[in-house]
Write a structure and sequence with these properties.
0% strand, mainly alpha, elongated, 5 helices, 85 residues
């Protein structure tokens, strides 16, 4: 369920996140998704928690992969603040 929610969230954004889209992505019925989320607010909270968790994981990987602390911080900032070039 988490992977389906994340994929739909990345593809459509929070504004267009729906139970129907998550159900389709997960291969479930709408009722199957409603088993996990009793209302749309719970779904949104879950989606945001998932985004934060994934972001935190990327940040930790960036810091661990850095050659030194400064490079790790730069990688972390690039994850948080994407720059357009």
């Amino acid at each position: 369920m988490g992977e389906a929610t994340f994929k739909v969230l990345m593809k459509y954004g929070l504004e267009r996140l729906t139970v129907r889209k998550i159900a389709e992505e997960a291969g479930l019925t709408i009722g199957g998704v409603q088993y996990y989320f009793s209302n749309q607010q719970e779904l949104y909270v879950y989606a945001m928690e998932l985004l934060l968790k994934r972001g935190e994981e990327r940040i930790h990987r960036s810091i661990q992969e850095g050659d030194d602390v400064f490079k790790g911080v730069i990688k972390m900032l690039k994850q948080l603040i994407p720059l357009r070039t």
